[in-house]
Amino acid sequence: MAMFTEEELYRTAGLMNALGNPTRMRIVLLVGETQRPLHIKAIAEVLGRDYAAVYRHIKMLQKSGLLEIYEVGRSRVISLKRGKVVQEFIEFAKKLMSKSE
Question: In what order do the strands lie in the sheet with 67-72?
Fold first, then answer.
């Protein structure tokens, strides 16, 4: 088994926790599909959720290192950090789940 430093354990657990919520997973998938930054307001509308709730989810994804938030005028937009790696991680999780059934 690979050895983790204490910091790596906490960062990995934070990443897994961030992706462990269906709304946050939808946000990551939505931003990953577009390949360009999206306005938080547009994401809230697509998800049919309140802006403030979506923003809290986005802040958690930002804290885990998955998203970046940019100020554009009076709006906030987000983009994926390391989008290809995130997509590969999600695909790996899907494969892992399909093998356990």
Answer: 38-39, 75-80, 67-72
Long-range contacts (CB closer than 8 Å, 24 or more residues apart) made by 50-56: 53/23, 54/23, 54/27
Reduce the DSSP state of residue 78 to 3 states and report it. Answer: strand
Let me know: does 57 contact 27? Beta carbons within 8 Å.
yes
The Cα–Cα gap between 93 and 56 comes to: 24
pLDDT tens series, the chain, 101 aa? 568 899 988 888 888 888 889 999 899 889 888 878 899 999 999 999 999 999 999 999 999 888 999 988 888 899 988 777 777 877 887 888 886 55
β-bridge mates for residue 38, sequence order: 78
Can you give the residue range of the structural domain that contains 13? 7-100
How many domains, in total, are found in the chain?
A: 1
Q: Is residue 89 part of a domain?
A: yes
